[in-house]
Design brief:
By secondary structure, the protein is of the alpha+beta class.
Length: 671
Amino acid sequence: MHMIRTRSEFAHAARTSGVAAFLLAMLMFGCALLPVAAQDVNIELNGNSAGRTFDGLGAVSAGASSRLLMDYPEPQRSQILDYLFKPGYGAALQHLKVEIGADVNSTDGSEPSFMRTETDHNSTRGYEWWLMAEAYKRNPQIILEVLPWGAPGWVGKDTLYTPKMAKYVADFIATAEKDYHLPIRYSGAWNEKVYDLSYVKELHKQLALHHLSTQIVCCDEYPGEGKGQWAIADEILKDPEIASDIAVIGVHYPLVNGKITTTDAARKTGKPLWSSEDQPNSGGGPFVSREWRTGGRILAHLYNQNYLEGALTATEIWSPITSYYDNLAAPNSGLMYANTPWSGHYDVQGTIWATAHTTQFAQPGWQYLDSASGNLPGKGSYVSLRSANHKDWSVVLETMHATHPQTASFTIDSGLADSNIYVWVTNDTHVLERMDVLHPANGKFTYTFEPQSLYSLTTTTGQGKGTAEPPPAKGFPLPYQDDFEQTELGHTPRYLSDQDGAFEVQPCDGRSGRCLEQVISTKPIPWGPLPDPFTMAGDSEWTDYSIAADVRFLSTAPAVLIGRIDSANVFQDGKAHWPSGYVFSLSPNGAWQLASAHFKQASDVLASGSTQIDASKWHHLELRFHAKQIEARLDGVSLTTIDDAAHTHGMFAVGSEWNHTQFDNLVVSGN
């Protein structure tokens, strides 16, 4: 225990030692040369205090943010999953919300739909089923949720607010329970789109018709949308049916300009209020590093602030892990970082431990103690929670913006345990480390908290810190080649990341074996930009290399090779057909084109032409880069060689339009 003596105690010591004049003078001038503790605070831990029910902390796997995790080798993949979901090991996430995929770009790629037509049904596509199963295996108490970003085109026209979509969502939930034994506790309506009351009612109806206990979180809106992200609260207060259908009000990024936006109407509904997507970004700013000194500190403050200022009882971070390529939209969103599966490397970032300071010390169903929650006089905040049995309790206290130590005096009463109190800390020198064991005297104790630190004080045990270490990082393997023979039919080859549509391994047309095929021919209902389908991989630092593939036309759509992709953030320009890079396309009629694609401006056609080809046969395309020289080749013959310096480095991709095209023997080699 760290104790700070009062000024009267210093004065008494000075008199008894004969140096009173010197010490009193020091006290009168405030000990200008020594830092002093900020004003003390008294915290009464009252087991009968009012307070909302804590619903947990979690993360949102969506927007293809987890794409590369499934490609990690063992044991690293299991180690990552342990850091995310295993109780007493890392973040110990208490919620996992996943996207219901729709083969449409939802931020960093497209996640597969499990029903591409009304009669199609395949629960093996994608990785969200697998991720939920792995999380549930580690923690059967985890709260699972689902939310659509887009929808397959058959559910409606331009909107997914249709009865068919409600059935689609209910079917996804029923399939999760039937095929994976996963209990889906909550579903949303449409990510960050203005709500439709009739659809909310229809979704509630379909959940009941499918005999599901899943409840509705509404409406996952972003600040500034429609009537405002909390507008659904007004509807709840005036429409009893909507009030009955909606279990939780959820909003995205409620911290705006430094303040939580919760409205009085939202509080009056009596519904649980959640930050159903959030970020450690100080409220609306760009994403930051997840290291302790940046993202970790911000998140530690945000978790407390969301409850203290916004009455928000759950916070879900997008995303659990950055398992997507760096040159896509919104890089570094995850609590962890793992996007080089070929190396097995991952990074357990400070945001993992900021989260653990709550999740390892309080469980969903615990109650906040409002009388023992608040702000520290010398900057910082604290929230207190008690267990359902009114005995165990924890205090999560952060001093991120403090400059001096602060002392708090605690009083424990109304049935709360006054047994051993364990003090855990994370700061610049300690990471989730148990520092002290306190022994209250007559239900009282005092502790001094250092600045820029995160503390958990608890009567519980079982906390811990994972010890697994990753191998070093290394670049994408070059040369790279894939004939797709080792990939299961209907699945995506390792390392390739679909950005729209779906590139899956299918039986080859016109030759034996397996090939990569773009299989989506009906445009989905989008959430954001809708570029033409492409799938990408590689290294952002590559400069001189060649990409080659055999191609087979199965429709009127062209076959496309793309290289030196320096940005694939299609949200930079919602009208862009391709990522920023060099695009070589060949159509079944023999027309070809080499272009330099840019965001926010038309592509520059560098060369084009036409040649005679047999569209019913396989052809070999190649795109070569050497310094400023770019060459496009067809069946071993050069079509054009030009000089251009618009794109000097970047990744590779193969693409198509919204129709079927096959690729085989994909090879990337250095020049």
